[in-house]
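seq as requested:
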Amino acid sequence: MEIFDFEKQNMQVVFLDAPLLFEAGLDVLCAETWLIHASESIRVLRTIKRDNVSENDVRMRMRFQMSDEQKIEMADFCNRQLKRRRVFEETN
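struct tokens:
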């Protein structure tokens, strides 16, 4: 299903699972962006398993991607930020 098909069907909420959303410029189609952040080591292991490639290959790909800090800055919400806020609120 195409993104614009959801609008035609009057969908109120649509989730896009797009790891390269910001790099592809597709964030402009979103009212809000939520970044689900995983550590680099977890992302590397997942990619090795999914694509059957070497760790070196994965790390080479990652060098050409936007940094975590850039993505966090661009996202409206990030699970890493929410976790920190919750910890801060619980300790104060």
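The mean pLDDT is 84.
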